[in-house]
Fold this sequence. Notes:
Blueprint: H1 19-67, H2 74-82, H3 89-98
Amino acid sequence: MTTPSTYPDLWPRPAQAPPSAVTEMNRLFELSVKQSTELAAKDARIEQLERERAELTLRLDNVMLEYCPDEMSAEQIENWASRQQAVSPERQAEFDAICPRKDHP
């Protein structure tokens, strides 16, 4: 019976990549990590810009509602209305203490 130690050329050897292929694989891995990092930074910037745009849209809609409500589109009014929040009873009490409403007893 033959054993690997007696006839080493008859047994499969583990595949080894040539040094140039290993270097290329390492370079490609580093490149993919760099690109992933850049994409994450770009995604964060896009999210920041979307938040800023939403804030500017809110400010514009508020100004338009105050000065030229007849020129607002139905979509603008719907967007403005969807961002309104109910005032908590505590905040309403604070406001009423400062500015009592005439129509409220």
